Amino acid sequence: MDMKDAPLIGKDALDREVRDLSVIPWWGLERKTVEWYPRIDPDKCSGCGVCFITCGRRVYDWDQETDRSVVTHPYNCQVACTTCANLCPSKAIEFPSVDEAHHAAAKAQVVKKAYQKTKHIRNKDKDRPLND
Ligand code: SF4
Ligand code: SF4
Known about the structure:
alpha+beta, Alpha-Beta Plaits, two-stranded antiparallel ribbon, 4 helices, globular, binds iron/sulfur cluster
């Protein structure tokens, strides 16, 4: 299932569509069996809104009572992505250990599947100069 086909479950504070991406399996695993999503440390968060604005998967919404971003759809998060944490100016966003992602990847046989999916394009340009 593509993201655009996931069920529409509402709109966020900026009137952007929110879809339930948790129904899309991750490499064959049920998304909700993989504990990968952000947590905001409220003591560090300045409420800048960067995470809310930049995450395209609508993991965040805006809490108008606290005037802060809030994680509303954790399982919409792309497994192993940490973009919002990398952009947060206050270093207020935490993720599980990357071991969680590696464990899920091993269980889903991601390496084997990636190899199979790219097998037909491998060695295609093997004679091309490296600096081309
Ligand atoms: S990017 Fe960081 S500081 Fe800004 S709203 Fe999100 S968690 Fe808070
Ligand atoms: S890690 Fe990526 S997908 Fe997950 S909430 Fe942050 S920006 Fe969105």
